[in-house]
Amino acid sequence: MAQGIPDEVMMNTSLIKDLADVAKDSALLQGVLMRIEETPNASELVTYAPFTLFPTPVPKDVFLQALAVQTYYNTLVDQISRDTDFLRDALASTIAVDDFTARLFRIHEQILKEGRSQSIVLGLNRSDYMLDQREDRTSSLKQIEINTFAASFGGLSSRTPDVHRHILKVAGRLEESQRILDNNPAAGLAGAVAKAWELYGSERAVIMFLVEESQRNIFDQRYIENELWKRNIPTIRKRFDDVCKTGSLDQDKRLFVDGLEVAVVYFRNGYMPQNYVSEQTWDARLLMERSLAVKCPDISTHLAGTKKVQQVLARPGVLEKFFPDQPQVVEQIRATFAGLYTLDMGPEGDKTVAMALEAPDRFVLKPQREGGGNNIYGSEICQVLEGMNESTERMAFILMDKIHPAPAHNFLLRRDAPLQISNCLSELGVFGAYVRQGKDMVMNECVGHLLRTKSSEHSDGGVAAGVAVLDNPLLV
Asked: Where does this protein hold Mg(2+) (predicted)?
């Protein structure tokens, strides 16, 4: 199983069909669920979220490396969010050409001008990696990005281990079933939210999930909500439109929505330009940022997660600024960096363009966007860069080395999709949670992991985009 599904299992079509049926039922029983239709009143139209039939082998040393570095990434994100000069300098070129980032930055500047209302900071993030295969066939952990806004699948990934354990037992592979790790990011993420709520200091105040109008991935969020209700912490779900219509601040800047005081705003919406459908939507974001409520993330932490900041961090000497006299921490973080290159105007950016045009298959062109499906690959990189024709538009992008993970065979189980073997690539995510009050870090933890797998024919796109599926690591 170290290289994938054993041949005697993989080639047994009758067994595979039976296992797939067992797996789908197990997913429904364990609550690995997703809505079929994106309508507000479609809770009864539910199916299993897409997932792999078998867990995917992951080298144990690389997996543990990803877990070990997560608390340092939590600290790094927090330090960046507090460094106004660094954020301004890092994003200067981007905000000159990218309207969305510029709009976010203007809110950031307004908050700085007024003074932050809340000293409690809540960070829930997910650092995503692929395992780059070296020439000697060993794997090297390389970061794709860090998500500081609405990092998803902490809920569903808490339910998938039991599904794969059950499948392996039915397949007669008891030893492998015992190597599926326990994993409960939902509890860890909720624990940090609960700590922020507790520090806010009002038992009457609620936690507000700021959500999309329609949400296929609602059950992922519900697991975190349920963890909070177990702690007797009330939650509500509201949309930008609700905040526009019923949101207000009192004289102490306490946030009220629909008559309820909000202790924590947990943003699960607001990371893409299309989420802001009107000026009123932007006003609602500013209202929440100005309020006494704890924001997850606040505007500066949102900006800390941009691609441009990721690229600037890879420059020599930058990490040392955030971890002075901590060379081992710097070394551990830097070891996870892939090659990252600026596209700012000037000789360095020109060199990056020439490098990309000469060998586009070696790179990924990344805009300042989240949500999956935005990156540019292969010959399309040439089309985009040549189309810009030395325009400042290129400053809205960064260039990154393409990571080359080792493929493995698996079956991807999706509703209404044929059961067939696929050549698959996997992406490892690690969840981090931290709470800071003033200068004191109250909580800083690695709270779980996520493995997503997709067919190697797809360059980009996640589970929500319909490309990747949920998976579990089988440590080898």
From this structure: 145, 147, 370
Calculate mean pLDDT across residues 364-388.
90
Domains and CATH numbers, the chain: 7-338+412-475 (no CATH), 339-402 (3.30.1490.50)
Q: Is 147 annotated as a binding residue?
A: yes
What's this model's pTM, rounded to 2 decimal places?
0.95
- 3, pLDDT greater than 60: no
**Residue 143 is assigned to a ligand binding site:** no
CA distance 29 to 358: 51
How many whole angstroms separate alpha carbon 41 and alpha carbon 21? 28
Among 189, 141, 182, which Cα is nearest to 337's? 141
Q: Which of 34-43, 269-278, 398-407 has the lowest mean pLDDT?
A: 34-43
pLDDT at 305 over 50: yes
- Residues 237 and 209 sit within 8 Å (Cβ to Cβ): yes
Phi first, then psi: give them for residue 434, nearest 5 degrees: -145, 155
**Amino acid in the structure at residue 408:** A
For residue 301, pLDDT beyond 60: yes
Residue type, 432: G
The verdict on whether residue 221 carries a ligand-binding annotation is yes
The CB density around residue 405, as the number of other CB atoms within 10 Å, is 18
Residues catalogued as catalytic: 126, 145, 147, 152, 307, 366, 370-371, 452
Q: Is 369 annotated as a binding residue?
A: yes
